[in-house]
Structures are given as C-alpha cells and as structure tokens.
Specification:
There is one protein chain. The protein folds into 3 domains: about 35 residues, no CATH class; about 200 residues, no CATH class; about 200 residues, no CATH class. Helix content is about 80%, strand content about 0%. The protein is mostly helical. One of its GO terms (cellular component) is membrane. GO terms for molecular function: antiporter activity; xenobiotic transmembrane transporter activity.
C-alpha cells in the first residue's frame, strides 16, 4: 500500500461522503476528530482546525462588531457635543470618562454569566441558563443602585478633583442624563452573554447596529431641530441603550429558539445571590483593572515635562491601540464561549484545542496589525492631526505601540479562556501584581527618575502586560483540562442541589 493509499484510509472514518455509515466533516464533533485513533496526529490537527476556525470566526466577527458599535455610540455623542462648542465637548468627554467606571464594572460583572451559562449550555442543562440570566440581572441592578448616588453627586465630586467649575457643572448635567443607562447596562450585558453562551451573536450585532443608526438620527434631531444641546445628547444616548435592551429582551422571550433556555421568570433566581455576587466581583475586578491600566498611562503623561505633546501623542497611540484591541476582545468572547461550552460538554481535548487555536489566530492578526503600523508609522498620526511635532512623537512611540498591539493579541484571549474556566479571581490577583505592583511603578521610575518620559512610562506598562501574559500562558499550558471538566460538572451539580456556594 502506497503513502497516498494510506492517507486515504486515514481520512475515510470521518470525511468519506460516499460511505453511508460515516459522517461528513460538518457533522463530526471536534472531540470526535481529536480522539479518532485511526487518524494521524497531523490529520487530527488539520481537521480539528477546520472545524474550530469555522466556529471561532462565527463567534468572533459579530462580537467585534458589537463592541465597535458600543464604543461608537459614545464617540458619536462626543462628536455632536463638539459641534455645539468646545465647552460642551469637554463636558461630554469628562462625563464619558467618569461613566467609563460603571461601563467597566457592569461589563466585568456580566462576564460571570459567560462562565456559568457557557458551561451549562455545553452540559445541555438548558434550564439553568434562564435562571443565571435573571440572577445576574438582579445582582448587576443592585450594584447599580450605589452608582446612581455617585453620579447624582458628580458635581461636587468633580470640583473636589480640581476640575473647572463650568465644565464640572455641564459634565454633571450630562452624567445625570446617563443615570438610567446604568440599569440598561445591567440588562444588556447579561443578555449578550446569555446569547453568546449559545453561540447566538449575529442578532446582537444587528440590534447594536440599528441602535447606533437610531442614536445618530435622534441626536441630530435633538441638537439641530429641537435645540436641546448637551442634555439632549445624553438622553438620546440613554434611550438608544434601552432600545437595545428592549429588542434583546423581546428576542429572548419570544423566539422559539430559546424555548429550552428561557422558561420564564423563576423564584430560583433569587437564591444564592451572594455567591453569584462573589463570582461576578472577581470578573469585575479582572476586567476593570485591565481597562484602567491604559487610562493611567494617559494620566501620568500629564505630569511629564511637555504634557501637551505627550498627551497628544499618547492619545493618538491609545486610539490606535483601542481600535486593534476591539479585534482581540471579539476573540476574547469567542474563546470564552468555546472553552466554557466544551468544558460543560465534558470535552477536555476540545477545550484545550479551542484555547490554543483562538490564541494563535488572534496573535497572527495582531502581528499583521503591528507590521502595518510600523510601515505607516510616519503617517498614521495625520489621521488625527496635522501637527508635525505630534507626528514625530507618535512615530517614535510606534515601536512601543506595536509591541503593545502584539501582546494585546494574546492577553485578552487568555483572559477569555480564564472566564470560560471560572478563573476570574485568580486573574484579578495576577492583574494587581503585574499591572499595579510592577508595571506602573517601573514605568514611573523610567519615565520620571531616569527621564525617559513617555517612552519610559510605556516601557513599564509593557513590562506589566508581558509579565501577565507569560503567567497566563504558563497557567494555561499547565492546566489539567480533565480536572477543569470535573470542576464545571461540580459547579452545575451544586446548583441543582440548591447549595449556596459556586466554585471558582
């Protein structure tokens, strides 16, 4: 028998369409491919990659669109505010920056639903998904209550922080119009995770896109027709988020697609709220520490010798980094769903394969982005400004930005794997150590003590991110996926037994 004949025989158990007793590749599960002893290792990897890549991109691409649209809503609000006047733009920017705290908190706490819903769906315990959705919404709404007090008294808080009186007043009025948006976050993020756990992401992308178009239209009417100014912009932004909430709620509660995962309101959702809060708090800390890390870089830049030039160049670099980061966040969501689904289904090999496939694909994309950036390093800043000095400063920072983009292609995906496995609390501790005990202090020493300015601060930040990425890579590499399957099964069994604790 020749080599070609042997290869044909190796393929036949899975992909021979002429054999009525065999399944075509599209109907073969990933775990079946990876455990098929009649296939060589090379063919198992190849066929597994074909299956996984299709699943991965089907999840990641709509998720990227959703996150881009969500960011675009706040950006469009700032654009309209800038058309009114410079003071209104400053107030809207200040308001959005302050509200970023709540956004990160709600997004982080909503990530706990990814772990539980994803594993329950993979284990075919469909009735638990609706209960987790309701419980998460209750917990996030309760957390939102003290946030309303914080933003109700935003004016004196902003004055205490040293902001100008006029900007503080206008910013506080803008924030007041966004208060109902807190509770829209509570419902929207949990609903998105509920849908993502079932690999239903395209409807969320359609809903978010429609909400963005509606927001732009209504904002134009309130600003240019009704003359409502800054408060009108804030109210429309809040209404747009609630439109997304209503649309997603109707889709979940009325579609027969979710007849097994949404069975109506249940009193069980009020059980174990404290245990769910602890798991959600770990997720919130993990996400918030990551989101605030880059913001601190910008704040430190304001203390350098030439703060205007440093802030302008860093702001441009952060905008480019944020755009590329959205791609990684999409793969973060996809990796979380795939990992949790496979663990819940009791497929350790598939969970491992999904983890490394998502990490590799995101790394390759980020590497391509970094190379494109370096080739256009002398021109990229002219998208934002025509200042030659800023362009030169941005060009000098581009190598640091390129390294950051590459690391951001790996680290968020590993964080998504951590969410899928339920490691949020562990990753939160890692983030504190790497970012705030190592990264920021080293950046301050290099930037201020050794006078490397923005390059020194950014070097410290890169060091913290690199350390965190290496730790997550090592932990993921050393993970016993069979034990993770058992942990996922135990977590679901404990809920069925109505016990209070949820394993981490």
């Amino acid at each position: 028998m020749g080599i070609s004949d042997e290869r044909t025989d190796l393929q036949r158990p899975l992909i021979d369409p002429t054999d009525s007793e065999r399944k075509p590749l599209k109907d073969v599960g990933l775990e079946s491919v990876l455990t098929e002893s009649s296939l060589s290792y090379r063919w198992r990897v190849y066929l597994g990659a074909c299956i996984e890549m299709k699943l991965l991109f089907r999840l990641a691409l709509p998720a990227i669109l959703v996150y881009l649209v969500n960011s675009g809503m706040s950006i469009s609000a700032r654009i309209f505010a800038g058309r009114i006047g410079g003071m209104e733009l400053a107030a809207a920017s200040l308001g959005n920056s302050c509200f970023f705290l709540v956004y990160g908190l709600m997004l982080g706490m909503g990530s706990a639903v990814e772990t539980l819903c994803g594993q329950a769906y993979g284990a075919q315990r469909y009735d638990l998904l609706g209960i987790y959705l309701q419980r998460a919404t209750i917990v996030l709404a309760l957390v939102g209550l003290p946030m309303t007090l914080l933003y109700t008294f935003s004016y004196p808080i902003l004055l205490m922080l040293g902001e100008p009186k006029t900007v503080s007043y206008m910013g506080s009025m803008y924030i007041a119009g966004l208060i109902p948006q807190i509770f829209a976050y509570a419902v929207n993020f949990t609903a998105q995770k509920f849908l993502q756990a079932q690999s239903v992401v395209i409807p969320s992308a359609y809903i978010s896109g429609a909400a963005l178009l509606l927001q732009i239209l209504l904002t134009w009417i309130t600003v240019y027709v009704m003359g409502m100014g800054l408060m009108g912009i804030a109210c429309v932004l809040t209404i747009s988020w609630w439109v997304m909430v209503v649309a997603q709620t109707l889709y979940i509660t009325t579609s027969r697609r979710f007849r097994h995962t949404w069975t109506g309101l249940s009193s069980k959702s009020f059980q174990g709220l404290w245990s769910f809060f602890k798991l959600s708090a770990g997720s919130a800390v993990m996400i918030c520490l990551e989101m605030w890390y880059s913001q601190i870089l910008v704040l430190l830049a304001g203390l350098l010798k030439d703060p205007a030039l440093s802030l302008d160049s860093l702001s441009i670099c952060m905008s480019v980094s944020a755009l590329s980061f959205m791609v990684s966040v999409g793969f973060n969501a996809a990796a979380s769903v795939r990992t949790s689904n496979e663990l819940g289904a009791g497929n350790p090999k598939s969970a491992l394969f999904s983890t490394w496939t998502a990490t590799f694909v995101s790394f390759v994309i980020s590497l391509a982005e970094a190379l494109a950036l370096m080739m256009s390093r002398d021109y990229v800043s002219y998208i934002f400004t025509s200042d030659a000095d800023v362009a030169k400063a941005v060009s000098e920072l581009c190598p640091f930005l390129a390294v950051t983009i590459i690391l951001n292609g790996i680290q968020p995906v590993l964080s998504g794997v951590a969410v899928g496995c339920g490691w949020q609390t562990f990753v939160a501790y890692v983030n504190v150590g790497c970012y705030y005990i190592v990264g920021i202090p080293v950046g301050c020493i290099l930037g201020f003590t050794f006078d490397f300015q923005a390059k020194g601060i950014w070097t410290g930040m890169i060091g913290g991110t690199l350390m965190q990425t290496l730790i997550l890579l090592y932990v993921t590499y050393r993970t016993d996926w069979d034990k993770e399957v058992e942990k996922a099964r135990t977590r679901l069994d404990m809920w069925d037994e109505k016990k209070e604790s949820l394993q981490n």
